[in-house]
Specification:
two-stranded antiparallel ribbon; globular; mainly alpha; 10 helices; 2 strands
């Protein structure tokens, strides 16, 4: 029963990752919170385990998505590389101190941010003119490097891979065409997710009621999540390729609205 539930969550994660470029940590982390609570894992260890395991699952999921986007020439590498480089360093450093951060406060602030962005995306009634222009994000090297620091920190602190802040930064700050955002985001979160999860591997956890755990990465419960995500990601990519930029903005705006409300409700009540 547990395996089937994790597999189902993984499928949802894969669809969202392929369609929007978000790694799916926003689904996996709450699921793992509930799972570890039922297994009697102390709250501090449960939080670190959930974040670390989510990041570990995001890596193969993002790689699978990139494989399916190959040949489409959509990944903007000149923006992705600097973001990924500083993001990886930031994620690794943040993961080292993540267990000492005020998690609920961070999640509430992030939830408010998601709601703000979702309202903007949903209220737009026409395609942004920049969506039809040539990509100029490569011109903003310094901005990309600084954005990577923020993305990496949020990735490790919240266990979300950094896909949501990455997509928003590329759209609002780097002015990247929306059709290029999902595949470029997958390239970024492959690196930030890997850096964060590797850092978590070297942080010991206390005694747990189950095995297959290295550091804070729970491979036993992460495996079915990864299997479902990897299997479903190609379908999300296919949906992305068939949708217009306007439709993708609406889908992503709706996703952010639900996730933002969920974060606020979970951490304020």
């Amino acid at each position: 029963m547990l395996f089937a539930a994790a597999l189902a969550v993984g499928v949802a994660v894969g669809l969202i990752a392929g369609l929007t470029g978000v790694g799916g940590g926003v689904l996996m982390v709450p699921f793992l919170y509930v799972l570890y609570g039922r297994l009697g894992v102390p709250v501090t260890d449960a939080t670190a385990l959930a974040h670390a395991t989510s990041l570990a699952v995001i890596v193969p999921t993002a790689i699978r998505g990139l494989v399916d986007y190959r040949g489409a020439d959509l990944v903007k590498w000149r923006a992705a590389v600097p973001i990924a480089l500083t993001g990886a360093v930031s994620a690794a450093l943040t993961a080292h101190w993540a267990t000492r951060l005020p998690g609920p406060v961070l999640r509430v602030g992030f939830g408010i941010f998601l709601l703000t962005v979702s309202i903007d995306l949903l209220l737009r009634t026409s395609a942004r003119a920049a969506d039809a222009l040539d990509d100029e994000s490569a011109k903003h090297l310094i901005a990309a490097l600084l954005i990577g620091v923020l993305i990496g920190a949020l990735s490790a602190a919240l266990g979300v891979g950094g896909g949501i802040p990455a997509t928003m930064a590329m759209y609002y700050l780097l002015r990247m065409p929306f059709k290029a955002i999902a595949p470029t985001s997958l390239a970024i979160i492959t690196v930030t997710g890997l850096a964060g999860s590797v850092s978590y591997l070297f942080q010991p956890t206390g005694p747990l009621p189950f095995g297959w755990v290295v550091g804070h990465v729970d491979f036993g419960h992460g495996l079915p999540l990864a299997l479902g995500a990897i299997a479903a990601t190609p379908f999300g990519v296919k949906l992305n390729k068939g949708a217009s930029a306007f439709t993708l903005r609406r889908i992503f705006g709706g996703l952010l609205l639900v996730l933002g409300l969920d974060l606020l409700i979970e951490n304020l009540w």
